[in-house]
Amino acid sequence: MMKKAQTWSMDVLFAVGIFVAGILVLYYLIGTGAESGIPREVVEDGKKIPEILSTSQNESIGFLLGGKVNQDKLENFAAMDYNETKKILGVSSDYCIYFEDDEGNVVNVSGSVIGVGSGKGTVGGVICGSGDIG
Fold first, then answer.
1. Residue 11, number of CB atoms within 10 A of its CB
2. Is the pLDDT confidence value at 42 over 80?
3. How far apart are CA 104 and CA 82, in angstroms?
4. Residue 21 — pLDDT band, cuts 50, 70, 90?
5. In the predicted structure, residue 45 carries a pLDDT above the cut 70
6. Which helix (H) or strand (E) holds 126?
7. Which of 117, 108, 105 is closest to 53 using CA atoms?
8. Which of 5, 63, 81, 121 would bridge 73 by S-S if both were Cys, CB 3.0 to 4.6 A apart?
9. What's the CA gap between 88 and 71, in Å, rounded?
10. Which residues contact 127 (CB under 8 A, 6 or more apart)?
């Protein structure tokens, strides 16, 4: 009789383990789909921009090379018309490009200007592309 009881309890433990694993997989699948609530197009545009701005990808507007920023090219890019940059980047979403130092502090792009891109967004309470408080 002892062996039957032990076998039954092992079966129950195995079944509970499978059930818990199934719940975790379901939770993961549901959670990752709605995790951020960000539309797919915005996510794709967000992945595309750094690739395009890498000078190895696009010499004309690229200002990133090996994790370093070419300040002159960045200032040239920042001076361009925003809608024109969206066309060149091939994105339809609004964007704001900003930089942080190693400690997570936002770094000015030029003078008191924080970020390059749409003025609809803010970075640290400052309107993107300006030094104005948002």
1. 10
2. yes
3. 26
4. confident
5. yes
6. strand 126-127
7. 117
8. 63
9. 19
10. 119, 121, 133, 134
- DSSP state letters, 5-52: HHHHHHHHHHHHHHHHHHHHHHHHHHHHHSSS---HHHHHHHHHHHHH
Query: Above 70 in pLDDT, residue 13?
Result: no
As a whole number of angstroms, the distance between CA 61 and CA 73 comes to: 7
Amino acid occupying residue 10: M
User: For all residues of the chain together, what is the average pLDDT?
Assistant: 77
Check if the beta carbon of residue 110 is closer than 8 Å to that of residue 75. Answer: yes
42: Cβ–Cβ under 8 A, 6 or more apart, which residues?
93
pLDDT digits (tens, 9 = 90+) for 63-89: 888 778 888 888 888 888 999 989 988
Burial of 4 (0-12, 13-18, 19+ CB in 10 A): exposed
Neighbouring residues of 36: CB distance < 8 A, sequence distance ≥ 6: 43
